[in-house]
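EI: anyone free to look at a 132-residue chain?
SC: sure, send it
EI:
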Amino acid sequence: MSLSIGEVSEHTGLTADTLRYYERIGLLPGVSRNAGGQRRYSDNDLGRLRFIRRAQAMDFSLDEIGGLLQLREQPGDVRSEVRGMTEQKLQAIETRIGELVQLRDELTGLVEQCRASEGCCPIIEHMAGETK
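SC: here you go
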């Protein structure tokens, strides 16, 4: 299969600019071109783009995805390296969840204070650092 950048954009939901960017930074190397210089994407390119999208959905950064793609193409057993990267990502997500729970609790308290307030806005005061 040989698809144009527009067709790949439709299949993947990625913009043409994003596809060009991925090529420029090496996440999608070696995209072939036709005689007119237009990019032509193969099944392998689409598979790589699906991998990138799934890894992004798992909160991996583009740099981390680049590392995962290198490991994916490396012969031999790469499980320990991939597992290590994934464990680090999991820990970062657990930390972020804790931060979000604290933020939710803080905002819930502020909303309750605001409902009970008759004067100044407790939320604005809190953001301004004026709370007592």
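EI: The chain is about 65% helix and 5% strand.
SC: 👍
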